[in-house]
Amino acid sequence: MTAAGEHVDVIRAVRLTGPAGVPFGDDPVDLLIERGRIADIAPTGALPARGVVLDGEGGRVIPGLWDHHVHTVQWALDAERVQLGEARSAAEAARMMASAVPLADERVIGAGMRDALWPDQPSLEALDAACGDRAAYAVNMDVHSVWLNSAAFRREGLAPTADGMLREEDAFEISRRLNTADDAMADAAVLRAAERAAARGITGIVDFDMAWNAAAWQRRSDAGFDAHRVEFAFYAANLERAVADGLRTGELLAGTDGLVRVGALKLITDGSLGTRTAACSHAYGDDPSNFGTFTIDPDAVRGYLTVATGAGLDVAVHAIGDRAVASALDAFTYTQARGTIEHAQLVRHADLARFARLGVVASVQPEHAVDDRDLVGTLWQHQQAISHPVASLLAAGVPVRFGSDAPVAPLDPWLTIAAAVHRTGDQRDPWHPEERVSIAAALRASSHHGETELEIGGIADLVLCAGDPLTAGREELRRMPVTATLLGGRLTHLA
Fold this sequence. Notes:
Elements: E1 10-14, E2 29-34, E3 37-43, E4 53-55, E5 60-63, E6 65-70, H1 72-78, E7 82-83, H2 90-99, E8 108-113, H3 124-131, E9 136-140, E10 145-148, H4 150-156, E11 165-167, H5 169-179, H6 183-198, E12 202-207, H7 213-222, E13 229-235, H8 239-244, E14 260-268, H9 298-310, E15 315-319, H10 322-335, E16 339-343, E17 346-347, H11 349-358, E18 361-364, H12 366-379, E19 386-387, H13 391-395, E20 400-402, H14 413-422, H15 439-445, E21 462-465, H16 474-478, E22 482-487, E23 490-494
Parallel strand pairs: 1-4, 6-12, 7-8, 8-9, 12-13, 13-14, 14-15, 15-16, 16-18, 18-20
Antiparallel strand pairs: 1-2, 2-3, 5-21, 9-10, 10-11, 17-19, 21-22, 22-23
Helix pairs in contact: 1-6, 2-3, 9-10, 10-11, 12-14
């Protein structure tokens, strides 16, 4: 009997996807694994069954799944917060906060509110009336705004706003403070969340936590973390430190057993749809004077990209509105930097070709199209650019990677894949069905850097599915049962 933690030598009787499966059709094959890599592929029974054998029983095996956009500590701690996603009004959200069990330090922290869909508006008075002297914080689903009561403002040493809301950088600062838990507690939460992710086929993440992640992942690795691979980003405040420390994108972080690599410089250049701050060409539907905002001056963005490129660092540019996407592409053109545009939720038709010509990767979150469709219909009703494109990007030749933006959306790659393939999360018709993609394209975009295939010599980061993703319907795809997840041939999950 195989068990989690074991190194597998042979995976028997599985069916393949991609080019490696072409010679075999849909017939079962055996995979031979040596030193963490796929050493051979042959019809079932042709290879000697030696060592630890995992019986695939005819299941489909696919490359290990990656989430290319995760806020790791916030995602890990989200399970401990009041879930406000179902609140239908500010009044209901305030009642939910009032009835919640506080943390040990008496704070009440909520997450996932979607105030842009509420008929009433958050107010300082309403949250004060509900929560009294207990410090209360409600973080927006998009993390670009936070609703506080007076006690929370006092605790943070800030003057209260009239509506109790903080937005953009002020909201990020509150999130950083909320996420700064005891290291041991935070690391334990990260490990628990990583184990849940492995059970869904995750073999790697790109971490966009707002911290100095080199130290955090070094610490976790020293403590034995080995649930998945990591590429960690850092933000502009730490760019000088990263350059001084000699960090280079793609290089292994020393002493992490080959699992942790340096990622990109992360820049947040505009806001979000839900907070109504994404920089757009046309006004928001509820405010003809609001076109969103740039959170970093475009000249400063070019400066950051120049420094990063000279130091051997990729960049990951958050750009949601079409003005922000266009400005980011201008900066890539000017500097010839390498990297990604994160989110790209509103893209001008003419900018599709620029994406492809520059080789800039679109790192997108298909589940946002499912979650945001009602907001787009009201807040972005006047926009002329393509909303939440996926198929359009691929058709233009743009490299595409999938992620969740967890905890903004759940870290479950099968929800992401199903959203990309079906463009709906309920019984409604697909939203903009022209942006649906094939299951093959969705699986590829969910592999490492959106370009990994099963091949002899490739790293044995693999997922064995109990169902068949190539033929599954929407609900089956969303719930896809994972029999086993292997990281370099080692079982990180076994059902």
